[in-house]
From TrEMBL:
InterPro entries, sorted: Anthracycline_SecMetBiosynth, Glyas_Bleomycin-R_OHBP_Dase, Glyas_Fos-R_dOase_dom, VOC_core
Full protein name: VOC domain-containing protein
Location of the VOC domain: 4-115
Pfam families: Glyoxalase
Transmembrane residue ranges: none
Length: 118
């Protein structure tokens, strides 16, 4: 039985660009940085940035990380858009919350999530 998430690995093409995106653009703490492997703290979950092997053909699917901003969802969308992040579509409204989907610097899918107001 799984007791939680230990680490999420994301493939990256350009390590310094990815570390800058997760550290500066998203505002997460970079725990360590290397050429082939870097780690970012996602509120207690380690996000491992794993350099792609040169034989890999590029981004195309994979894990989706969902972040819950500590401010209003739309305020965070504005902040990220001002930082150059491109959102894929309008905010999706669901009974279980709102989702805003965007790409990281390496083409991986990311989302912002806001639960419904109680």
């Amino acid at each position: 039985m799984a007791s939680g998430i230990a680490t999420v690995w994301l493939p990256v093409e350009d390590m310094s660009r990815a570390v800058k995106f997760y550290g500066e653009t998203l505002g997460l703490t970079v725990k360590n940085e290397g050429d082939d492997w870097s780690e970012v703290d996602g509120n207690g979950v380690t996000i491992g940035l794993n350099a792609r092997e040169s034989t890999h053909g590029g981004a195309g699917g994979g894990a989706i990380l969902t972040f819950q901003p500590d401010v209003d969802l739309y305020d965070e969308i504005v902040r990220l858009t001002d930082a150059g992040v491109k959102f894929i579509d309008e905010v999706a409204q669901h009974p279980w919350g709102k989702i805003a989907t965007f790409k990281d610097s390496e083409g991986n899918d990311l989302q912002l999530f806001e639960p419904p107001a109680e």
